[in-house]
Amino acid sequence: MILEKGYSLKESFIRLCKNINPAGVGSGLVATLFSTLGPGLIVMNAAKQGGFTDGQTVSWLFAIYAMGGLSCIFMALRYRLPVSIAFSIPGAVLLATLLKQYTINQAVGAYLAVAIVTLLLTVSGAIKKVVEHIPAPIMLAMVSGVFVSFGINLFKGAIGTPKIYGIMVVVYFLFMAMRKFSQTIPPILVAIVAGAALLGFYGQFTPVPVHFELASAELVMPSFSWGAIINIGIPLFFLVVGVQNIQAVGVLMAEGYTPPVNAMYFVPGIASIVNGFLGAHNAVTAGPSTAICCSAASGPRKELRYIASFFEGVFWFLFALMAKVAVSAVKFVPAEFAAVLAGLAMFEVFGSAFKGAFTGKFKSGAMVAFFVCITNQPIFGIGSAFWAIVLGVITSLFVEPSDFTFFQNRKKTEVPAQKAVSA
Questions:
Q1: Is the pLDDT confidence value at 417 over 50?
Q2: Angstrom distance (rounded) from CA 150 to CA 34
Q3: Dist CA 323 CA 206 (whole Å)
Q4: How far apart are CA 337 and CA 146, in angstroms?
Q5: pTM assigned to the model
Q6: Cβ proximity of 70 and 91 under 8 Å
Q7: pLDDT for 390-405, tens place per residue?
Q8: What is the DSSP string of 216-284?
Q9: Which residues pair with 284 in a beta bridge?
Q10: Residue 267: CA atoms inside 13 Å, Cβ hemisphere, count?
């Protein structure tokens, strides 16, 4: 079967309704804020650079958030795991420089080409085999490297603006120390309330005109151009397959979950096809949003943290319906607010990933992967997260080959053979 076995959607929904809790809903809200405030502006900027009309921009926003929301809901109920399906944020940054060279139809052709190739590789089983053979410590080191920037932005905001974000951080850790209280009301929710109050007190909200109107999507027919497929499709392919989805796999592993690898590639692949016909770029399984939803902030019971990703999906879909409003409304709150919230939400996940990366085997490979990732320097146009895994594995093959199961099994078979020859 293409997709891993899961649960009944109806039974999972009934279970979810019986166990709704503030922590799960709160983490879903934090993941939504993280994915809409800054990233939403990135998409709008890319559309502006590409010369898109307002209608095409709204359609792009509607598609990525509607399909991401529905996919989050499906993954949460099907696998009862805190998995977030979103869109490629680095992909949107990349498109800001490339879209001006091609028509929207040619760009859509490239998006669809990436989606189809990803689906074919998933169906063949090739992706799952590759992912399963990547040493977990190296993957977790890559995840740690990706999350370093979130920790830096967290404390950069707290130190740079202590009267708002510094107080938010202090409030978060104070309430985290109150173990009994924090199990009922998650510290991240208290931090949100404190931050919003401080933003209002210091007049940091930016007033913008808002006209409430439901979003509408525009159908875009693809035009397949080799130039667009090569220049847009190939970098997007490596971002989707080799960088972004695999981050989410590593995040789930760091928190002790068993990732449904095929589903984490196949579901975004289907969503990407719908996205493409609405003028939007590819969906991915999002590492940062998944980290927010699977963290301890989503509740003490790990088996119920899928509630966070379910509500992230609900909030995303509502945001998609209001995409026309969102074009202006995302400027209402400073971008630093979302950055600080994301850092707080992922604080404990970073610790788990770091511990898993450097406390067992493959230490040299993990160290190389970590440092390559935090350079954030692309090679041949491919992001550092992909090269972190490649160079980490190569390092371990040369420096610590005995850590690989393959070499261990080989030695075990060679020893009896040598004894037989000597006999």
A1: no
A2: 11
A3: 18
A4: 20
A5: 0.74
A6: no
A7: 899 999 999 888 888 6
A8: ----------HHHIIIIIHHHHIIIIIIIHHHHHHHHHHTT----HHHHHHHHHHHHHHHHHTT---EE
A9: 86
A10: 27
- Domain spans of the chain? 9-413
Specify the DSSP element, H or E, that contains 374: helix 363-375
Least confident range from 171-180, 201-210, 252-261: namely: 201-210
Residue whose C-alpha is closest to residue 33's, from 196, 173, 183? 196
Convert the pLDDT of each residue in 238-265 to its tens digit: 777 766 788 888 888 888 898 898 999 9
Question: What are the tokens at 35?
Answer: 């994915």
DSSP line for 200-217? HHTT--------------
How far is residue 371's CA from residue 269's CA, in Å, rounded to a whole number?
Answer: 30
Q: Which residues pair with 117 in a beta bridge?
A: none
Token pair belonging to 30: 């934090």
Report the 3 state secondary structure along 58-120: HHHHHHHHHHHHHHHHHHHHHHCCCCCEEECHHHHHHHHHHHHHCCHHHHHHHHHHHHHHHHH
Taking the alpha carbons of 347, 390, 258, 249 in that order, is the dihedral positive or negative?
positive
195 Cβ contact list (under 8 Å, min separation 6): 164, 165, 168, 337, 340, 341
